[in-house]
Write a structure and sequence with these properties.
Length: 119
């Protein structure tokens, strides 16, 4: 993995100006969840986790879906793995396939001095 420094602007180390984030742009736009996908947030607890497990089992058994996809970002990945294991144990003849990927976000920063000059 290499670091691409072409996007980093040079800041004068002698200046005491603070950097301010101007925007964050994802590499690809976020997608809406499809019918067979279930999104998991990091702030869920107790009953919400049980609801996700019930929803996954309902989709597999009663809606006769052959596959479901559980999606999570950041700290929710641990909960996703736990939920996937519980669903796999409760539904017979079910196996799981794990795919992980990362998404690059580009954060743009500008010096406070530059921002004040533009205004």
């Amino acid at each position: 993995m290499s670091f691409d420094d072409s996007r980093v602007s040079q800041v004068n180390p002698d200046s005491n100006s603070e950097l301010k984030r101007t925007s964050i742009e994802p590499e690809a736009p976020m997608q809406q969840l499809r019918r067979e996908e279930i999104g998991i947030r990091s702030g869920i607890k107790g009953r919400e986790i049980r609801d996700i497990i019930d929803r996954a089992i309902y989709k597999l058994l009663y809606l006769n879906m052959r596959t479901i996809t559980l999606k999570a970002i950041g700290n929710a990945c641990n909960k996703l793995l736990s939920i996937a294991d519980i669903v796999r144990r409760k539904v017979k003849d079910l196996y799981q396939v794990n795919h992980t990927y990362n998404r690059k976000y580009i954060a743009k920063y500008e010096s406070e001095d530059v921002i004040s000059l533009l205004n």
